[in-house]
Amino acid sequence: MEFEQQLEAMQEQFSALKQFVALMMEEHKALETENHHLRTRLEELLSNENSVQAADEKKENPLDIGEGYDNLARLYQEGFHVCHVHFGSSRKGEDCLFCLSFLNKQNV
């Protein structure tokens, strides 16, 4: 009887451990995806840095007002939140009404 109780307790622990491992694997995958997006963006920024510096040396113009909006829209398209509620976190492929509302407000 005691052996059965110990076996059931071990099965419960094993089940909890399996759930924990599944959660960690999901989080790991999300972090890998975010890391990939960030590395891609960093490469884009570094490659564009030289052209921006050359343009700045030729002519100094203030940044366009629309450039910030364009950057936020690009981040949203890359799968990140741009709303104040979840800024910078991954959207996991789902649309966010807060982000869409914010982007539409900026566009008007």
From TrEMBL:
Keyword tags: Cytoplasm, DNA replication, DNA replication inhibitor, Metal-binding, Zinc
A Pfam family matched in the record: YabA
Domain of life: Bacteria
NCBIfam families: PRK13169.1-5
Protein name in the entry: DNA replication initiation control protein YabA
Organism: Lysinibacillus xylanilyticus
Gene: yabA
